[in-house]
Amino acid sequence: MKPLSIKTKLFGGFGLALVILAGTAFASWRSLQALIAAQELVARTESVITEVEKLLVETLDTQTGARGFVITGDEAFLKPFLSSQAALPGQVALLRRLVADNPAQAQRLAELDGLCRARLEIAGQLVQMRRERGFDNAVLSPLVQRGKETMDKIRVQVRELKREQEALRTERVAASRTRAEQTLVIILLGSAVGFGLVGLSSYKSYAEIQARQQAEAEVRRAAAEIEDLYNNAPCGYCSVDKDGRVRAMNNTELAMLGYAREEVVGKRLITELLTPASGETFRRKFPEFVSTGRIADVEFEFVRKNGSTFTGLLSATAIKDEAGHFVRSRSTTLDISARKQAEAERDRFFNISLDLLGIASAADGRFKRVSPGVTDLLGWSAEEFLARPFIEFVHPDDRVATLREVERQTVMGEKVLHFENRYQHRDGSWRVLSWRSVPQPGGLMYAIARDVTERKEMEEQLRQFNHELEQRVAERTAELSRVNEKLKTAATRLARSNRELQDFAFVASHDLQEPLRKIQAFSDRLVTKCGPALDDTGRDYLARMLNAAARMRRLIDDLLMFSRVASKARPFEPVNLATVATEVVSDLEVRLEQTAGRVEVGPLPALDADPTQMRQLLQNLIGNALKFRRPEVPPLVAVWSEQSNGHVHLNIADNGIGFDEKYAGRIFQVFQRLHGRAEYEGSGIGLAVCRKIAERHGGSITARSTPGVGSTFTITLPLRQTQPGSDHEQIT
Asked: Which of 231, 261, 290 is the last residue of a domain?
């Protein structure tokens, strides 16, 4: 046989190498595909385990959020609840896709989905119950136990699902390892192809490792968030083992106690953090807790590191292993010191209150608690009063009304602001109580009462007195009516007499003027024609006669002026007193110059009045101030006003001679003078006219004075007149 050439060998070898390379490449490709499939199955198994753990975490978040809200009532705790509630459907959908190739696990996942939905519904119902019915109802609800049982089933399902996935992962990892070994043999035989496959496998492995590391980082981040939520929750979290030794405690409870974590966790028994009495309570209740697996709302007195104490409200559930053996507790602690202090203050107020306080239950119709004031008032002991339905103490005639008021509170939810009934004293007497009451959840009524027995007796006496008084008033009214009729008759006669007297004064004054004018006229003629023929005595007599006639004429004029205050009066109209005062001062200008006097007029208001009489009033008063001046002292007159209660107080003050105030009432009478005619001229009617003008306007006039210092006259007048100007007119 002809030996193969080098070239043939080379090409044969190269071809064989190519064939081997091709075969190696094909075999490596087949093996690599199998390896990739095995790795994907392993990765899918890991994903299922990871997602199942996430599903458990989300479910725990809903439980934690709902529990935190139920315990505290703080809406902030619902944030993880709502977040997890929204995330769970997506989490379940992802798991369905991951286990779609495994019917058994798909069925288990469906059961787990149903349990998660049931747990969400229970948590939602607890949240709604906490909002609507309060802490006690929510904590004591059967939903809590149902939620725990559902959560235990979820853990069992998750545990079984993880166990199956871990077994499947073990099988797939083994298969992957076998494929890898086959691939390694092929790579070693295939040389460069093997290195390529190794490189490709390494690259793929690196990519998968990166993906796994990212997933693990996400898991660590979620774990950190859970740890932060645990450590910084608004309530204390603590776990103790079967020996009562603290195995975990969050930052909140550590802060309550004032310890560092390393001082407590793993080193102290929980009883070392309690007062001796609370420690004894813990030792008594702990075996029962280990057996039942739960304890709720137990109060313990905790001792801080500095020795101070606080009251904590503790609730706990037990963590047990698969065999049902106790592992450790998980408990929450709320610092209720402030609430306990408030309750103590409430109890102290309840005991010392002077009011009658009571808490009653509509369910059994009994008082649950009453203040000492109730038993002191009614004479019953607290035990006797609380043992019987309160309606038995109520007067039979008041029972229907009392039960109606109770129904208003318990059925309709209305407050009772005032209700009176009679309660029986131990001695058989009845006390009248006035009640106010407010309905509370649970069919309770918070009531406050006052003893109004004496007041009711006084009211009855007052009613009798009023009845007697009404009878007496009726008798007196009839008598007064008779007297009033007599007074009206007398007033009519007096008014008629006043009018007749006024007419007489006017007529008499008018009729006297004519003979008086003749006396003055003939006296003037005697002076003119016979004056030179008379001796001194005759001229003196004649002068005296003329002076007397002049005085008589002035007196008649003054009488006419006095009578005209009513008879010639004008209707009231708006009058500006400032304008009137200015005109009066202007009329007195000559007298002011003669006496070097001064009149100072302040702001004066406008009022309803007779303008002529207002002018006459100011003319008389300012004129008198200038007349009755002190010798060698220039007169100073001040006019000002003050207002109050719809009236003006018009003041005219001077620095004149003044007078003794014991004569203050006399100076306003007709013809009354305090000085002789030789000293100061006048008839003594001017101030009487002022008084009459003031009275006609529904006002008054008064005077204050100091001899040698001056006088002040005050006229009080209404600013507005309700009558046209005649109702006040009356001669006195």
From this structure: 231
